[in-house]
Amino acid sequence: MDIADSGVQVYLIQMPGRMAMYGYNKLIKLNLLTDTTKKYILAGHSQGAKMAARFVYEHPDLIDKLVLIGTTHPRDISLAGRTLPVLKIYGSHDGVANEANILANRGKLPTTTEFVRIEGGNHAQFGYYGFQLGDNSATISRERQQGETLKYLLGF
Q: Ranges for the Alpha/beta hydrolase fold-5 domain (predicted)?
């Protein structure tokens, strides 16, 4: 099962050069957030999560919930004063966005942010792009890590 199978309408937006920092405002250019009768959840992984947080920071009235996966961000902005529900998911074996750095930046998120630690998960297994330089080996399968991530996303 994936998110779309659960009845949630999903958009995966291709970023220029696979770099979220160059295209995170495409949400506005593509007119994906114009139906005010819908609730919008913005999610991102790693640098994509950084830019999702940046988008919410710059456009606070467009997004209803924020999901940050495998990231230490936000680091250079603060969402602490926002009432926006935030879910932050990370792996216990993530060598790129390690737990100490993730928790060090929790003061830049709303106090109601829900933190979820996936035991045995690493950075790369949140996606399908192969080995990530600096990452640690996961002790759970990709399917299990992504299944747990999906469970928390759908429960959010």
A: 2-146
> Mean of the pLDDT values across residues 29-38?
80
Q: Which two tokens stand for residue 73?
A: 């961000």
C-alpha to C-alpha distance for 5 and 61, rounded to whole angstroms = 27
Q: For the chain, what percent of residues have pLDDT higher than 90?
A: 66
- Integer CA distances (angstroms), 19 to 5, 14, 156, in order: 27, 9, 27
| Per-residue model confidence (pLDDT) at position 19 | 57
Q: Retrieve residue 30's tokens.
A: 């593509």
Q: Look at phi and psi of residue 16 and say left if phi exceeds 0, alpha if psi is from -120 to 50, else beta.
A: beta
Domain holding 11, by residue range, is: 4-155
Q: Please report, for the domain that includes residue 82, its CATH number.
A: 3.40.50.1820
Nearest partner of 3 among 32, 128, 12, judged by Cα: 12
